[in-house]
Amino acid sequence: MSEFILEMHNISKSFAGVQALKDVSIRCRPGQVYGLVGENGAGKSTLMKILAGAYKADSGEIIYKGQLREQATAGEIIESGISIIYQELALVPEMSVAENIFLGREPRRALGVLNLKELHQRAAALLKRLGITPNTRMPISELTVAQRQLVEIAKALSQDADLIVMDEPSAILAGNELDQLFQIIESLVEQGVAIIYISHRLEEVFRIADEVTVLKDGELVDTRPIEQLDRAMLVEMMVGRPLDEIFPQTQHEQGELVLVAEDISTDTILTSASLELYAGEILGIAGMVGSGRTELARALFGADPLTGGRIRLVGVDGATWSNPAQAIQSGLVLVPEDRKAHGLFTALSVRINVTIPILRRLTRFGIVRGAEEEAVVERARERLSIVMASADQETQYLSGGNQQKVVLAKWLETDPTVVILDEPTRGVDVGAKFEIYKLMRQLNDRGIAIVMISSELPEVIGMSDRILVMNDGRIVGEVGQDEATEAGIIALATMSNSEANGQ
Amino acid sequence: MNLTARFMSGLTPSQRLFLRRHGPVFAVYGFILILFLIGATQSERFMSVRNLTNVARQSAFLGIVALGQMLVILTAGIDLSVGSLVKLSILVSALAMNGEPANLGMAILLTLGLGLLVGLIHGFLVNEVKIAPFIVTLASLGILRGVSLSISTSPVGSASRDFIMFYVQKIGPIPVIALMFVVLLILTALLLRYTAFGKYLYAIGGNVEVARLSGVPVKRVRYGVYALCSITASITGLLWLSRMGVGDPAIGDGIELQTITAVIIGGTSLFGGRGTVIGTLGGVLLLVVMANLLVMLGVNQFVQGLIQGIIIVAAVALYKQEGD
Q1: Domain ranges in chain A?
Q2: A6-239 sits in which CATH class?
Q3: What chain B residue is nearest to A327 in terms of C-alpha separation?
Q4: Model ipTM?
Q5: At residue B20, what are phi and psi to the nearest 5 degrees?
């Protein structure tokens, strides 16, 4: 057996005439962490789906544990010791944490009866290794996205994998969860497991990877040991040009008060939150995953009905809303965290995705004017440089960054006064991230107020004029841009946490 | 396979997309063509004007309800009650008309109003009580059927004379009923393509939560779509009255499954968000022409059911091939 556990040679794959991968080769040794980076659409996910058996390569070969791998089912591939944790988590929402972890491999007693006690014990033990102790009987649908991610990792651990692929595991993890993840990775590596780690956060790649492979436009740029790279080189390899400025700055005065929320609560964790929002500013919302940030965004947008408090737009008489349709009419929009579940019609065309909120405006005498519809899509494509084959293309075939741009484009067309962005750069590569930041500044310049939720503290600090810190469903503090530090924000969030625990 | 690949590679991406998405619909029409060829060569009566007129009328009887059914299925819903509503509609209209030309307008309005009411009730239960469409309309299937059969188990009422004539009326060689179907086909296609309502149907079927968060008036659209579907059933009840001349309670059974079959063969996804009028027309024609041809060829009617089942599986298998 060779020193490599996995060798993928000259893999090529195209979809409907678009070359997604061209002659890409990678090799992995046991006990090493491989960073796989590249912009959206570079082919990282496609390569991993070929490894997982979800796609069949047009050409090339895969040698796993010294043997040429023939066509195999996803089940056989998992059996052979390859675990893949996808960006879109593959869990059954209505089944419990433990049932999901052992789905298809449930411990049994005689006669095939499930051993539920052992099921939950083993699940709890696995989760303990990850440093968390959730209720293993809780249905997945009740968990936050970050908690689901940890369940996926527990599932991979339970499969005794020799090779684990993590597709953007950190995109939805915050602070201490991330540290846990790295500890887990380190202990797996000590046990001889090979890890392929896909991430847009280069700091992480530098922190844990032994070797980095860069893909661009479906082609291999290079594979190098991490010691031979620095951040600037890596970025340049990814985007093909040097990137100087990450957070574009603008000078502006605080604008007029546009929105006031007073003591709002919903049927979720969100409790008695109050905030004021001014024209042309970015209000950052920081806090751990599960602290109620998404719930705050949904409450502002009318997606969850209020159980207390009120929200009003200043200067617009009687502008209240109790559902998203009314919120949109009042000038609020929400770019949700979970793009596929809440932001995008994945099976429908780019055209309908972009025009859906403004169809009524495009309608005259009951007829949607096709020419205007096309013009809107064309404008969106230009404004946000969306890469797509045609307006008819289903959005599921776009890369993550382009999907996010479609969601943004859809809302910009409504001419909003308040834009709520929930994790706007999640799963988005460095280049597209910068474009999104620039776009946010452009919106500010037009006087649009932005509420931005993000798990990436540098992003929150770099972009926000003011930062609200949330914990346990409450807003626990406000920090101005000048005084904001990562340590300070984390302290604010965790302090209230320990207070709560102490009571 | 190699040939297909080579053919596909000669096309532009958007042509390829079109073919991949609509290829199976072409296959359905190809199959209808084959049925016609078999009919023309194997049966003396199949291509007769009389028979083709019949086929056109039968297509309208199935097709009008199938259009309503398709709209509902596009939203990822379903309407199992259409057959029972056709039955109730023929009874109500026959009793209301009672052979009197003077009652004609009132009877038609009453019947269409009945359809509207039933549809709005479906919409209410789906929207406000949040019961799954399958369950709402399954209950409705039973209730409407029960109401019908408690009105009468034998033919009642009668159509007025001029209303009976409606069934046989033609413009040129084409039955008026078939023309009516064609008009409704075109209207539905325009509705789907050029109105916000039509696009909202796809949006709701595509992902109802995304639709809601995008400001789509989900409830209103659902009220509308169930009302439209039920009205197509009421219209079909009226057409049956015109054909039978009396309120025959035997009419209507199984129409729900026939329409769902036609819609599926036409390529509409049962999970919503995908489907075309031209596909549904293909599904309707395929079912009607095949049933007609099998009768012409003297094939046992139990075998018809068998063949229909095989076609459903074959059609859906074909649609599954798209995408990869």
Answers
A1: 6-239, 256-331+416-503, 340-415
A2: alpha beta
A3: B215
A4: 0.78
A5: -65, -40
